[in-house]
Design a protein that fits this description.
By secondary structure, this protein is α+β, with helices and mostly antiparallel strands. Helices cover 34% and strands 23% of the residues.
Length: 527
């Protein structure tokens, strides 16, 4: 079994874990991050894309509201490549409580969130899809943020300072000696190989799995699992983030992200950290509530739905809110287990928002440094990330490069304008590591357009086989896994145009290509 030694082992490759890796590296500590999937495959990659101004929490959760507006400005400054400055609107429909507006304005002022009153007519002039029946509108500094780009940006920057990241490695056990955690045993989820990492301190940033990681050290961290569903519409119905001006509820956010508009979200208590169900009532509720402020959405084509699990934390002495996740504060907690439980070498960070990931990392790393006797201060808010992403994720940018002749090669994914050279380059960047088509989706937006992989998945599978013929999974299995995951997000939306697209995709894969037959033959050969 291979053995490695570092100063700090970070568990979790979401926004907070990757920000912590960057912070640790800048402070001069030898750091290694381990993630059981790819980067941002948990909560950080399964959310609505909103960079919060804090307005959503200004009344009920002022601490989170203030954290959001402060970190909103920081992320704009240090990670501009991941942020689209859409601006934001809070709007009231006739059925929304009118007395909430006053409380919201007071809360925003107290939290430092700037607001600008617009007339409903002005709001509708800026965003024609909005309902002319709106009764109030205010501008706030919301934005859209790409969680995939942000996490990759933190890791790229951390590597320049000597940090490392291992993806597709799960923590099989924490190593505990007496009253101290001294490392972890890791398992490669693709090959089954194991390795040991010795660390002076372990930082648990595993999001919904933080409680499970803590239990490996015989510690109790109560994490509440709050599932939220989201829907991507095929059209970018608004170019500004639109929030309902009412107490937070289901279906009151519209976020323009890339070429689509994301509607969200619900709040459902669940018992599982990996619960990704989307129920019929959630789809109906989200679309109905969105249509109250943008009526055309009621007749629009929904492209895809997905769900993520919020890791909410309640201290041991807090009142439990198992059935009402919105009652739990959205701020974060850093648990220094040396002082909390008498177990040195372990720090847990849980709760919070993607918007506050850098701040969460700073406070968690402060606790790690206190255990290690390191006095170096955090500097992650001081300057932009030193390396920018090599890929363009805005469709207009890709189109301009194609038109100008700066990008060449056959289009593999027409919806997102992914070319064969782009795909080949990305596959090669994985080096000796196995590559899944879903990894390429996160890297390049492959299969995320209106056909949901219908026309590009089999092409991409062929390119992957050519470039990496000895990949971990057989090509038929790689294609089947990708297609199934794409179809999973479409199934709750099978009506109208989306149903027609689904039938076409099914005809391509099940009948023309005979993917089921090929998969059965592959499984028989494997046996």
């Amino acid at each position: 079994m291979a053995t490695d030694t570092v100063d700090v082992l970070v568990i979790g490759g979401g926004a907070t874990g990757t920000a912590a890796l960057y912070d640790l590296a800048r402070r001069g500590l030898r750091a290694l991050l381990v993630e059981m999937g790819d980067l941002a495959t948990g909560t950080s990659g399964r959310y609505h894309g909103l960079l919060h101004s804090g307005g959503r929490y200004a009344v009920r959760d002022p601490e989170t509201a203030h954290e959001c507006i402060v970190e909103n400005r920081v992320l704009r400054r240090i990670a501009p490549f991941a942020v689209e400055d859409t601006g934001g609107l809070f709007v009231s429909a006739p059925q929304d409580p009118p007395d909430f507006v006053h409380d919201w304005l007071v809360g925003c002022a107290a939290s430092g969130i700037p607001t600008e009153e617009l007339t409903p007519a002005q709001a509708c002039a800026e965003e024609p899809a909005l309902s002319p029946e709106l009764v109030a509108a205010y501008r706030v500094p919301d934005a859209a943020v790409d969680g995939f780009e942000l996490t990759h940006g933190f890791v790229r920057a951390a590597r320049e300072y000597g940090a490392r990241a291992l993806i597709y490695h799960r923590v099989a056990a924490l190593l505990r000696e007496g009253d101290a955690v001294v490392g972890a045993e890791l398992e490669d989820v693709r090959t089954g190989e194991r390795r040991t990492v010795r660390a002076a301190c372990v930082l648990n940033a595993a999001g919904p799995w933080a409680g499970e990681i803590a239990r490996l050290a015989d510690l109790d961290v109560r994490v509440l699992f709050d599932r939220g569903a989201m829907i991507a519409m095929t059209t970018r119905w608004v170019n500004t983030v639109v929030n309902r001006l009412r107490p937070p509820d289901d279906g009151d956010i519209l976020v323009p992200v890339g070429t689509v508009c994301i509607l969200g979200t619900t709040s459902v208590h669940t018992e599982r950290p990996d619960d990704r169900r989307v129920e019929a009532w959630e789809v109906e509720k989200i679309i109905t509530e969105a249509a109250a402020v943008a009526p055309a959405i009621a007749q629009a084509r929904a492209l895809r739905t997905w769900a993520g699990v919020r890791p909410l934390y309640e201290p041991p002495n807090a009142e439990h809110h198992d059935e009402d996740g919105r009652a739990v504060r959205r701020t974060f907690s850093v648990l220094d287990h040396a002082t909390r439980d008498g177990v040195r070498g372990l720090v847990t960070v849980v709760g919070g928002k993607l918007t506050t990931c850098r701040l969460m990392a700073e406070k968690a790393v402060d606790a790690v440094c206190a255990q290690l006797g390191v006095e170096t201060a955090c500097t992650t808010a001081d300057e932009p990330l030193p390396s920018e992403p090599p890929r363009l994720h805005r469709l207009s940018d890709r189109w301009r490069k194609l038109e100008a002749g700066e990008s060449s090669g056959a289009l593999i994914c027409e919806c997102e304008m992914v070319t064969r050279p782009q795909l080949e380059q990305t596959i090669r960047e994985y080096g000796e590591q196995p590559v899944a088509l879903d990894d390429l989706r996160r890297d390049l937006r492959l299969g995320m357009g209106p056909c949901q992989g219908g026309f590009c998945a089999y092409r991409a599978a062929g390119v992957l086989q050519e470039v990496k013929p000895h990949n971990d999974a057989p090509p038929v299995r790689a294609l089947a896994d990708f297609v199934e995951e794409r179809f999973r997000g479409v199934r709750p939306l099978l009506w109208g145009q989306q149903l027609r697209q689904f039938y076409l995709d099914e005809m391509i894969y099940r009948r023309t290509l005979g993917l089921d037959t090929l998969l059965n033959a592959q499984e028989a050969a494997d046996e």
